[in-house]
Design brief:
11 helices, alpha/beta, four-stranded mixed beta sheet, 13 strands, globular, 25% strand, homodimer, UDP-N-acetylmuramoyl-L-alanine:D-glutamate ligase
Chain lengths: 307, 307
């Protein structure tokens, strides 16, 4: 039940209406690994870091079963750095700084030991590199999930369209689903995207939850209504990590099991936003996670016996 | 199990990206009555209409058990008229015309035969008139539900605050909940609103579903993902009518039953948007409704046995 996670490992500076941090570990593959490691280990990580990525942060991840063989360490450059500021509604943010640093040289080389991994999570990143990782795999994984964003639709659409033909599950947010398909209706957007390759489409709607589409089937997962969203950074990556982690743990790629996996991802994301960066993800226990998932049951459960 | 519905009975002219109608019956109390009448009859309607409200439209409603004794007919004025145009996203609309006509003189007088009604739905309207209806009732209903909008928060906040002290359930949309409470977080907004009077707060989020808050309890209902929303006019009033209709039918005002009632309301609203005005609401059968509610079960149901 091995899982490959591909994506950035970074440092972030984040400002929200509730506080500010100048330096915290981040990146799609960090959030995804923290979330997934609750369900499956080892995690075969594929990423690149600079000299400033601390041994302590690497050790934290290794203690959670994250295999660093596929993580390139660059001695003379800094790690990818992102800085952003959130507005009051937490749904919009301004990017203040994007320093690619080592990410500009990222050309993932899959270690031999990663061959045969059954599950693949391609975190948001350059579509050509996502394709490269898939091409290096000698066997097609049992399930390949790709996360992407509008930036790649604007700048690398041909590569992205190619990548879509190679994957099973696409994760995008609602505006990205609309942009990719040219359809306003999310039902129609999901149908059109399925024709591009992925047989499963997950549309993330932040505080409004997530939708899973497969053929004529639809599943709607709520987001947990929270008193405060402290820092939404990484919530989408955490959702992805919880989703693929649960799938890899159960080794069940049915639509029914994906529904539960989406609830697991939603629960993990609801922890992520409680503190800065992945802080909260490092703290939570199995009991916390199980309790949160039970909250989701109460949240959507209703008596179906009509009177 | 008698139900009073108070609100406008109107004519609308509607333009959406999918079509245009110059003249169709509408108004909060019309949509609510069509929805509720599937679950409870008679419905004790309180409204006002002009000479142009056709006998055919009144007869359509009467055939569904809508009692017109509390509906004042004005011989020399037209019915309330609203005209609006929806944008592509269907979430925003421009109001083109608002002719109050008879609604300017609306001073509801409750017929004696309506006394003792167990359930009360106060459709969106002037808060002072909503108070007047409540004051005319000799016995407090088993459940009073009030729908309102930002316009009344801007123009009649004191009356609205007074009305809130007299009701059990408030229905508003997300931006209205934020405006009324001054809280961005909907969880905090719902808590603050409960302190203003209503022990139950329903927050409508259109295509993103609805939330029910009561003390520390929360329920999230999805909206049915639709290929096309043909005309959203009246969806909120239809939701309200389905909700109170099911509550009145079951005579059960528990939180658990309200959850089911919200799903019933959501199902009714999902029909409403399929055609112009209340057209679709007039067509659907008990079987259609039961089938739609079963779709909601499939939509949110997931396997809770974590492996």
């Amino acid at each position: 039940m091995s899982l490959i996670i591909v994506g950035s490992m970074a440092h972030d500076a984040i400002e929200t209406p509730f506080g500010k941090t100048d330096w915290i570990v981040g990146g799609a593959a960090v959030y995804a690994a923290y979330a997934a490691s609750n369900f499956v280990q080892p995690i075969n990580q594929v990423s690149i870091v600079g000299y400033d990525f601390t041994d302590e942060e690497l050790a934290d991840l290794e203690r959670r079963g994250v295999n660093m063989e596929g993580v390139k360490k660059v001695a003379d450059k800094k790690s990818f750095f992102w800085s952003g500021k959130y507005h009051m509604d937490m749904n919009s943010r301004d990017t203040l700084v994007t320093d690619l640093n080592v990410l500009a040289d990222f050309d993932p080389v899959l270690p031999d030991s990663y061959q045969g991994s059954e599950f693949l999570m391609l975190g948001n990143g350059v579509p050509a590199l996502q394709i490269s990782v898939m091409k290096q795999l000698k066997e097609r994984p049992k399930l390949s999930v790709l996360d992407t964003m509008n930036f790649w639709m604007d700048t690398a659409l041909d590569d992205l369209r190619h990548a879509l033909t190679m994957i099973d599950v696409l994760m995008v947010n609602d505006s990205e689903a609309r942009q990719l398909s040219g359809q306003y209706s999310l039902v129609k957007a999901a149908k059109d995207i399925q024709k591009m390759g992925p047989k499963y489409v997950i549309i993330k709607k932040g505080e409004h939850g997530a939708l899973l589409f497969h053929g004529d089937k639809v599943f709607v997962a709520p987001a947990l209504p929270l008193e405060d969203v402290f820092d939404p950074t990484g919530a989408g990556d955490t959702f992805a990590g919880g989703f693929i982690g649960y799938i890899a743990h159960t080794r069940d790629v049915s639509f029914e099991n994906m529904k539960t996996a989406i609830i697991v991802g939603s629960a993990m994301a609801s922890f992520c936003v409680e503190k800065f960066g992945p802080t909260r993800l490092k703290e939570i226990s199995k009991e916390d996670i199980d309790g949160r998932i039970r909250q989701f049951v109460d949240l959507v459960n209703f008596d179906i016996e009509l009177r």
